[in-house]
Specification:
The chain is mainly alpha-helical. It contains 15 helices and no strands.
């Protein structure tokens, strides 16, 4: 393989697809009742985690896995570091924008705003698609620009009209940034670090250690009187979020260093060894605030990184070593048109809201309900696949 080429790794796309399907699935669990607790999020003060608590950190690790390939691909095209950094900033801006708009919808006051959530959400998501769609080269550039301008005007109008809270007194603004916003902040820091570190693994590992150290000391209350520092690093989960992303960066850097190795199993064993070490570390630091996604504790970071590495090792063995990928066809759009697949459920829920539709008891309870939510996730990603084939691809 030519060392100047940076092809997509099938297993990363498949792992991203699996994670997105699970994200859509667990996000739909609110519509069910009488389901196992281990599938759902644990409460902030609970020492433990459910399946839903592992999905978001897995996605952050996968974001990190993609960074070395993205940056290296741009360098192979002779892009300067300033150009790469500009691209990183634009992607971050897009994620932060989407995150803030979506998180405001959680507390919208329909009466004070003049529109309910089932109007607000699809309007926002449609604007995101129009602004950040990867339009086909044959698409009229003037029409594209007009659509993007119209979308920005609509977003500004929605933000201006927005009122939130029970009494409608809250104005539009960043709360906790939302899932996409947290991804954006963690991506920004991690991508910048990798860009400046180049192909040097040691500086990246050192930065990961700094993130872990800060996360651990923050939860150990060593920085009790550093309110300003906590506020600044709040969007980074006191170091937890970039630690997850950087873990993914490190795994891909190791892969790039080993990709020409004759033993294709060696990378898999390295991943499993790293995962095992991280899992042990997770239980060692568990006394420091427990395992908690809501608190973004160091134990949660270690254990979720380990789980993601273990699953990635299996998918790598199956897809890249054994070349068995046919099974993933039904979910592959979630790995290549991921952001669109994330946005599509908002349209589905809006349609249900408009018609005040409620699922029958039979398919909203227990095992039948879980099957319903899983089928819903598969339908969403395949709609994303169909839209992608017809020129709707949200790429940042």
């Amino acid at each position: 393989m030519n060392k100047t080429s940076f092809p997509r790794i099938t297993s990363i796309d498949i792992l991203r697809a699996i994670t997105m399907v699970l994200m859509i699935f667990v996000n739909d669990l609110w519509s069910l009742k009488n389901i196992p607790e281990w599938l759902e999020h644990t409460q902030a003060n609970d020492d433990g985690m459910g399946l839903a608590d592992t999905v978001f950190p897995a996605f952050l690790v996968i974001v990190g896995m993609s960074i070395p390939f993205s940056v290296s691909s741009r360098r192979a095209k002779n892009e300067s570091d300033s150009s790469i950094l500009r691209h990183i900033l634009l992607r971050t801006f897009a994620l932060l924008t989407m995150g803030v708009f979506l998180v405001n919808g959680e507390t919208i006051n329909a009466t004070a705003s003049g529109f309910p959530s089932y109007v607000y959400y699809p309007a926002c998501c449609l604007c995101f698609i129009l602004i950040w769609n990867n339009y086909p080269k044959t698409f009229n550039k003037t029409i594209r620009l007009l659509l993007q301008i119209l979308a920005w005007i609509t977003l500004i109008f929605l933000a201006w009209k927005y009122r939130g809270g029970n009494d409608g007194s809250h104005r539009f603004g960043p709360g906790w940034w939302g899932i996409l916003g947290l991804i954006g902040w963690a991506y920004l820091v991690s991508a910048v670090v990798y860009t400046f570190a180049g192909k040097k693994l040691i500086p990246v590992i050192l930065f990961w250690l700094v993130c872990i150290l800060f996360c651990t000391t923050a939860h150990a209350d060593i920085f009790k009187n550093t309110g300003l520092l906590r506020t600044i690093t709040g969007p980074l989960g006191q170091g937890a979020m970039p630690a997850l992303v950087i873990a993914g960066v490190i795994s891909s850097m190791i892969f790039l260093n080993m990709r020409d190795h004759a033993d294709k199993y060696k990378f898999m064993w390295v991943l499993l060894a790293l995962g095992g070490g991280l899992c042990i570390a997770g239980f060692v630091v568990r006394p420091i605030d427990g395992i908690s996604k809501i608190k973004a504790t160091p134990s949660w970071v270690f254990i979720c990184s380990a789980i993601t590495f273990a699953i990635f090792a299996f998918v790598y063995w199956l897809a890249d070593v054994k070349k068995q990928i046919a099974w993933s066809g039904i979910i592959r759009p979630a790995g290549t048109n991921t952001l669109l697949c994330y946005l599509l459920p908002y349209f589905a829920y809006a349609i249900l809201g408009v018609f005040s539709f409620k699922y029958p008891e039979l398919i909203s309870t227990g095992v039948a309900g879980l099957i319903k939510s899983f089928i819903f996730a598969l339908v969403i990603v395949n709609i994303g696949g169909l839209l992608g084939k017809n020129g709707v691809q949200v790429k940042l």
